[in-house]
Amino acid sequence: MLAFVGLGILLLGGVLAVVAFGGGGGSASGGLISTSACTEQQFPGLKPQHINNPNANVNYNSFPPSSGPHYAQPAPWGIYPDSIKQTILVHNLEHGGIVIQYGNKVSQDDVQKIDALYQDDPYGLVVAPFDKLGSKIAATAWNEPAYDQNQDANFNKVDPGHGFVLMCKSFDNGALSKFRDTRRNKAGERYQSVKDMAPGQ
């Protein structure tokens, strides 16, 4: 797994997070997605907490993780050829991101369709392989009330909201697009605008 390279550029993350507080609306409350290919599940949000080791063993309540303790720096938004530590990706979820991962048995045709979905609207997305998913595609999000200013320093007062996992046995553009559009930028450290979540940031 890629523990994460190019961590230096992530120093911008702390500065960018300042604009995250207060924008973007509340948690999504609509019905969960259910299609012939994909099923969305909702999980109780776990309290956020920064951890200093991306290899830490965290007991998450969903697979893949959709809320909870996370590494202190998120991954830059983008599409990756290698897996990323789940503890890093949960921090992306806390910033309102959508993480799309696919197993090592997903067809190359579906991988190309995932790439096209990303290229169509890459803001606030991280796409990466995750072998443990096998033949499945998973999208994750964390929806919670926006943190108050400086609440990042006192996570005990945070309402962790809910984590969401959309699990697909094959690519479903409609389901994945709806999940992205419904769940994106609705986490505690959200941005003022989705356009602030550009690739590489």
What does this molecule look like?
There is one protein chain. This protein has 201 residues and is an alpha/beta fold. The protein has one domain (8-24, 33-196). It is 20% helix and 18% strand. The chain contains 4 helices and 8 strands; from the N terminus they run H-E-E-E-E-H-E-H-E-E-E-H. It has a 6-stranded mixed sheet with strand order 1-8-7-5-6-4. The two termini are 21 Å apart. Mean pLDDT is 87; it is low at 2-29.
Can you describe this structure in just a few lines?
This protein has helices at 11-18, 86-94, 108-120, 173-183; strands at 38-44, 50-51, 70-71, 78-79, 98-102, 125-129, 137-143, 162-168.
Strand neighbour order, sheet with most strands: 1-8-7-5-6-4
Q: Round the Cα radius of gyration to an integer and report it.
A: 15 Å
Net shape: globular
Order of helices and strands: HEEEEHEHEEEH
Percent strand equals 15-25%
Q: List segments where confidence is low: pLDDT < 50 over at least 5 consecutive residues.
A: 2-29
Largest sheet: 6 strands, mixed
Calculate the mean pLDDT score and round it. 87
SS element count, helices = 4
Helix content percent band: 10-25%
The beta-strand count equals 8
Distance between the termini: 21 Å
Class based on secondary structure composition and strand pairing: alpha/beta
Number of domains: 1
